[in-house]
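User: Fold this; tokens only.

Assistant: Input:
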Amino acid sequence: MNNTLRAPTRGVIIGRFMPPHLGHRYLVGFAREFVEHLTVLVCTLHDEPIPGRLRYEWMQAMFCDVEIIHVTEEIPEANRHNPNSYRIWADFIRKIIPDPIDYVFASEQYGFKLASELAAEFVPVDPGRSNFPVSATEIRKNPFTNWAYLPNLVKPYFARRVACISQQIGVPGVDSHPARALAQHYHTVCVSDALERWMTLRDKPRTADDLRLVVKSQAAATAALLPLCNRVLFAEADCVTLQARLHLELDLAGHSHSEPSNLYVLHFDSTHSAEFRQYLDELTAILEEQSLPYIVTSEHDPHKDPQVVAAIEDLFGYKVE
């Protein structure tokens, strides 16, 4: 029999994906291999802790070959305590997907009842979560303990950023920046100083346009490294410190990751030049004016300073309620 006119199989997945994790990636990947047309409904409410639009954009970026639909309509009568909730959900899904649905994919029991109401087959994917023993709820409670289960795309949302400011060039016996020592200690990556990168291959920036490019370069490096960091991203500079150092007032609101760091570690040392010490004093005044948290150390290896370690570890207490 010729099957060339057979209708493509259709499947559906529904979820909040708050946030998406590797278990979700496996779920969608499984279903994508199973059917010819897959629709994923990202169901969000306006008062949820992680913005719905962001979760929808994450899912779009992760699964560009899957139909991702953002569902923002609230259906209070479809709550889990209503015995007719699955029928209500099925009717709602039919409005979004008018074509017959062949399969419902899920790793939880609700998939069976929803599939029955849709006259579809339920395909359980990973009920025991044997490959990825985590839930979005657990991640929201402690994203850092469950860091390995976060897709790189999602990590910047939870990652913490620490700028460690020091003068390492020209200091006898010093061959590394304290920020890099911190990054090595915490097994993560470090953003280099964009101004130093610039002057390695170019003359000192002279024009206002040059200076703007330097600051934007710092933001771009931060954005590129955040998905690759291990819980925390250290930096030799950030947009706040560069603008203070270069005496600039720039509007970088439209550039990603140009916002302040979560913590500033200021390294004071007797070998620093008078000019650099003056810059640190000016930066301290700016941080206090903007109520940005900072800590001062004279330890070139800040991870050996208990106050610095305590301040950094405190960043990992972050929770989304």
